[in-house]
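Q: Can I see a sequence and its folded structure?
A: Here is a first one.
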Amino acid sequence: MSRPYISVEIDRNVRSVAKNRCGYCLSPQKLVMARLEIEHIIPVSKGGSSEESNLWLACPICNSHKAGKIEAINPVTNEVVALFNPRTQVWAACFPSSNTQHIQLSEQIQNHLSNYRY
């Protein structure tokens, strides 16, 4: 399957609105050793479009982990739930923000960055 065409204008708009941060791990472009990717929130394989409203930024690791998924099993409730939508949902409202979890997230980001060689 060929990659859908995304115009330079849409690419710039998405990067600007996303503030050059991954929508999933919140890593800013300056900390990611590869270019943040324009990703389809609803994958083309699941009927998603390449319209700006369905696009956001993701670091290569988050984008490859999400891949063609739109839902996952909640490990606490065992229910199938929709994945986080960085365009329409507020990150802080969806993920707890206790200090311990912030430290864990920081460690995850550091581990994420250590996957790149420079």
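Q: Show me another, different protein.
A: A second, unrelated one:
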Amino acid sequence: MREVYERLHLSRLHASPWQDTRSAESRRNDEVDDLLHEWANEKKREAKILFTGCGGSGKATLLRHLRILYGVPYTGDERRQWKMTIIKNMLSDSDAVLQYMRDQRIEFENDSNKDYAQAITAWSCNDDSNVVSGHIFEALKYLRIDKGYQSALFQTRDSWTHYPHSTLNLHYFINNLERLSAPNDLPSDEDILRASKRLCGITEVICDIGERKCRLYELGGSRGERKKWIHLFDDCSAVFFLAALNEYDQQLSEDSSVNRLSEALTLFESVTRSVWFANSAIVLFFTKVDIFLEKVTSGEIPIGKYFPEYDMLPNDIAAAQEFFANKFKKVAQITRKEIQVHYINVLSAESVKEAMSILQI
């Protein structure tokens, strides 16, 4: 409402006492009515959107990508902060790969790389440090060309079973190591999109998508913390729920008996049942579809092994996508919620733009 009073004050400053014979009170009432009407119309064009989903579904990446495409560009200071995050990602992910090598007894092609591996692990044990020596970058350069390390990197790129997150983006980062380790280099937009950062509190991004001003929100922190804030979004236009399709064969790192996509379905059900979102549009985004397609077409990881009710051809992509879409739709139907379903690559500008262009919110 502050905008209304500010505009009213400006209109009085520029008004002429000879322009209208009506009483001052009458003119003020009309001005207030006009400004309130204009303010209400602006609010109708504004969309308040909440992003949610299980960890690793890509919601933070999509939020960043929408800022890059439609919002305020990242500043130099912000990019410098992201640079340290990216370096820490490389080192912690590399340490996860090295741990996998130890667990699976994968040998280094070159025994001298064991010393480099110890340097990476030692740094990761003290990951509060914001100082990375040239020796650490040298270690990464030698490890990335070791065939044993490369094999472990490939095997862990889609794994949540042993580690708190996959090493999916590590291959990209170490291939750009020379650029990212240069002292004066600032991360690109793609670097920022591929980085991983634990969020706390509420993240807000304001941008214009089409003719609508959008306020985009993601809730960080633990599940208990998110519950404390959820009531603040009872007036949101839409809830964007993201689910990673490639996780149909994965288990929660904290509970290996729970399938990750089944967990996403459970969370989605709680969203559709929530009284806070009774008047909000529900939009389901299936993410990481490229890895899902690779898995399904290979025939090596059959969906039926993890979802016995799946009785279609093992490598039928269309049938597999429809199977999972119907599972989520069925949950929504219980609460009489109409949902929109989209398949999206959150790293692709073209895919994100296409998804945003056809949304009905």
